[in-house]
């Protein structure tokens, strides 16, 4: 215990100038845009090598190029998080890119996801199943695949799992039975990882976002969509559903930027949260209190 406390204290004092995540390796899914992109850029700025994964590998490479042009280190890995071979593909690429004996994986941020909104009584099985597959099964499988590289006795490096949830998972939401169920389930997954992996020094936390300015909360009329099993799924919120003041329930009176959302994720990954595990951090501007 004394050694662990000394290590944390040393990290906070001796390496802060080099970044909160100096020398660490972080896998971030869905990192080509939105919150994931902001997390990738922020983690890299704080000294981490970032494995930028996304369904669109070309967009992921753009983020990697941006990180490298700023003097950081990153790797792009394309692929569908719901695919059976995705975890092994990402873990293998990460291990191969790290110069040993550096710890191959310090952090996993399970951020990838989308919404497939329908009223409950009109939600088809496929709309329910794919959301569960992407938001619950995919994080579970990636964490499980990383176990041999993170679940190591005596390793005192800063290590964490961060799963992304939502206010929908905390409180439910009209038109989001599938999304709310998935985002609630991932909290239970996180708490279980906390209890099973804590003895190995691995922390596990959830960050629950409220209204963040991304393509998932943009006007649906903008035409943003994602392709799922060959079918286009429209993203965003219909203008008519927003009401006269979409921020009325947010005490801060506005939406968060992706960079503000990323700040909450960085906190949970950093040594500043060295004794925070099993927690759900609400990044909501006060909504839902």
TrEMBL record:
Superkingdom of the organism of origin: Eukaryota
PROSITE patterns: ADH_SHORT
Entry keyword annotation includes Chloroplast: no
SMART domains: PKS_KR (SM00822)
GO biological process, one term: fatty acid biosynthetic process
Cross-referenced Pfam families: adh_short_C2 (PF13561)
Domain Ketoreductase: from-to ranges: 24-200
GO MF annotation, one: quinone binding
Annotated keywords: NADP, Oxidoreductase
InterPro entries membership: KR_dom, NAD(P)-bd_dom_sf, Sc_DH/Rdtase_CS, SDR_fam
Similarity comment: family membership: Belongs to the short-chain dehydrogenases/reductases (SDR) family.
PANTHER family in the cross-refs: 3-OXOACYL-[ACYL-CARRIER-PROTEIN] REDUCTASE (PTHR42760:SF133), SHORT-CHAIN DEHYDROGENASES/REDUCTASES FAMILY MEMBER (PTHR42760)
Name this polypeptide is given: Ketoreductase domain-containing protein
Origin species: Pycnoporus cinnabarinus (Cinnabar-red polypore)
């Amino acid at each position: 215990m004394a050694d662990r406390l000394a290590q944390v204290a040393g990290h906070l004092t001796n390496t802060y100038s080099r970044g909160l995540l100096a020398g660490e390796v972080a896998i971030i899914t869905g990192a080509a845009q939105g919150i994931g992109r902001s997390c990738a850029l922020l983690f890299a700025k704080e000294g981490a090598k970032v494995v930028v994964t996304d369904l669109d590998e070309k967009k992921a490479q753009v983020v990697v190029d941006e990180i490298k042009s700023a003097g950081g280190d990153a790797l792009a890995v394309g692929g569908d998080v719901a695919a059976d071979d995705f975890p092994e593909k990402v873990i293998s690429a990460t291990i191969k890119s790290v110069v040993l004996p550096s710890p191959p994986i310090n952090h996993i941020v399970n951020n990838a996801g989308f919404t497939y909104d329908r009223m409950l009584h009109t939600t088809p099985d496929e709309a329910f199943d794919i959301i569960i597959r992407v938001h619950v099964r995919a994080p579970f499988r990636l964490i499980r695949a990383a176990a041999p590289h993170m679940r190591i006795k005596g390793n005192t490096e800063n290590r964490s799992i961060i799963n992304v949830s939502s206010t929908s998972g905390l409180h439910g939401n009209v038109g989001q039975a599938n999304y709310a169920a998935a985002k609630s389930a991932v909290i239970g997954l996180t708490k279980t990882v906390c209890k099973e992996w804590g003895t190995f020094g691995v922390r596990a936390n959830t960050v629950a976002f409220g209204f963040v300015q991304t393509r998932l909360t943009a006007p649906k009329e903008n035409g943003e969509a994602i392709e799922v099993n060959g079918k286009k799924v429209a993203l965003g919120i219909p203008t008519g559903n927003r009401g006269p003041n979409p921020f009325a329930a947010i005490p801060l009176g506005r939406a968060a930027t992706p960079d503000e959302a990323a700040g909450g994720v960085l906190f949970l990954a950093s040594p500043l949260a060295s004794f925070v595990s099993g927690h759900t951090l609400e990044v909501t501007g006060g909504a839902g209190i």
